[in-house]
What does this fold into?
Amino acid sequence: MARREGEQRMTRQSLTIRSLRTQNRSAALAHLITARDGTRAEIAAAAGLSSASAANIVADLIAEGLVAETGLLASQGGRPTSVLEPVADGAYFIGADVGERGVAVELFDLTMTRVDREFRGGSTEESPDTIAHDLTDAVEALRQRNRDRWSRVVGVGLGLPGIVETDDAGVQTLYAENLGWDPVAVRPLLGHDLPLFAENGAKTLAKAEQWFGAAHGVEHAVVVLFGRGVGLGVISDGELLRGSASSATEWGHLCLDRSGPVCRCGRRGCVEAFLGAQGILDRWAAAGGRFDGSGWTAIGELLDAAQTGDPVAHDTVENLIDDLGTALGGLVNLFNPERVIVGGWVGMRLMQHLSPRIEATTRAASLARPGAQFELRSCTFGGDTVALGAAVMPLESLIAAPVEEVRSRAARAAG
Ligand SMILES: [Zn+2]
It folds into this structure.
């Protein structure tokens, strides 16, 4: 009996030591990937480690092939200090932006530099069946071209156009109500035997901004995406807000006006019906605006016409700024962010032309105190970043645990 207790205590102790070492490895690797390089002393300071622990962890990461010494810094009076960097070729991640207009699949190295990409679709609207085909086909094309890298691909992340739920067994389902799709099982979408991760597209974008962009280094941020649809990711206390079953922050379908224009979700007056690209252009057309293009071109025509004094375009843009301020001010009151970060292809254009006005209307629509506590910024990454954000999911899995553990966990989830 005494022996058994002793054994259990030993197991617990070794588990604790192991999980501490895993945590230290995570902190050191995350620091090197975001900072791009660093010395052992910098890693120790950033990750809160003793210099002996930092040296051990760095030795582990070098042995895993993820980190290398790439240079020397002269130090005062002592031995020169080694500079460490992530090994670009040490691990790869696939991120896929799955939208109703097609599937963009991108391959990133450990420095999160895109090294290859493949696009499928674009001719017709996607459905769950065509997505499975296009995604599998695009990943296969990447595999054919990157055979020497393929054994180091950690996994595939999908940014999906709807709510992505994960059940207790790790099984994921996509609910894309506004596209009129029945619930879609996520795992069968990929006909490749790689660890698979999935998340709502706007939430993956918020992740990309948190790791590498405008939300880096803050604990509280709202990242809003204006494009064809409207999306939101909220970072609260450093974590992405998900709610009880992951649908939290489906802000695009928050009602601004019950008698407003009909939204793609079938309801009226949603944020998306006012501030999605089509909603903006419909209102311009209804006011008498005339334009030839659609999408990107037409939004550009609207902003140009407003700037050159076209009265209809001017009024449309004024209304747009007011609506935008009302919508963003609501987020400021709800979440008390340090940063409000605006992106998406429509959002980036609006920020480029109108950020001081957007800031003023947002502050005016917020309560005075939280309205004075945020800064407004554009997304670091353009409209086309869902794939990068999706690739952050397998990156996070590698940061959390060595690659063999990622693979065995994914195999268990796939059943
Ligand atoms: Zn809606």
In short: The chain has three domains: 2-86, 90-205+405-414, 214-378.
